[in-house]
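Give me structure tokens for this 59-residue protein.
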Amino acid sequence: MISKELLDILACPLCKTDVRLEEDRIVCTKCGRRYPIKDDIPVMLIDEAELPDEPKKEN
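Here you go.
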């Protein structure tokens, strides 16, 4: 589980805007990229992100 404090300081590495938690992904509020969370650690790498129109990948 990602803490509220961590979520408050995270930003999308591509467009530098706020993110929100949706199920098991961190989602950019601007571009919609979905960043996975693996072992309770957000993977905030642009290359690992799913685009808004892509189906979710299984971990």
